[in-house]
Amino acid sequence: MAKPIMAKATAVWLVDNTTLSFKQIADFCGLHELEVQGIADGDVAAGVRGFDPVANNQLTAEEIKAAEENPMARLSLKYNAAAQGEEKRRGPRYTPLSKRQDRPNSILWLVKFHPELADIQIAKLVGTTKPTIQSIRERTHWNIANMQPIDPVALGLCKQSELDTAVQKAAQKRAANGEAMTDDERRKLLSTEQSLGMDAEPKMPSSISGLETFSFGRDHEEEKEEAVPDADSFFNLPDHGDDDEDDDK
């Protein structure tokens, strides 16, 4: 369902100027019913100036009056060309100030663990620029010595579903170009849902493949046949004879 422009300010106006139920206002503005109740109590949207949906051609006074008389009625948004595409994000992703210092660490994580991602994909995921990504790829970033790779999902810079989608697109592009991938790269290109749905089968990392039959000594069967030494032979204790006992007497 399409939302009105300035949805929260519209909800403030409806709470202050109508007798509509919280549910009716929440359904129309795309908010939670408890959030509308918080607006009415003054706990939410404090200081937000109401936005008149009638004066701004989003509702009619007749429809509001009919909804006030019938609590089961739902308000419908009038077609407004200015509201088209209102929810679509424009420009780069906004990153809160408190998390911007961690953004290079998340870029380093993506470059290290998902090298198949293009610069434009990384830029959209964490809200950065191509020159910054390139400097981290080439390890010419001014703070590269102090940076640590951190998952951008754990930092809250992007959602896991967004990362999975970007990884899947990268996998499809590489497959279309006929580029070969290693087993480790294929496992990285799995989404979270696919990884969780797989059997819990231990896999030998490619970095130590070929060492399954390596051993440092003799076969295990030969070790079993070897007799276990007793305490005296193990500690190499001196043999005390009867002469020593006589001398003590």
Automatic annotation (TrEMBL):
In this chain, the stretch annotated as Disordered covers 81-100, 194-249
Entry's InterPro entries?
TrcR
Entry superkingdom = Bacteria
By what name is this protein known?
A: DUF1013 domain-containing protein
Could you tell me which species this protein originates from?
A: Celeribacter baekdonensis
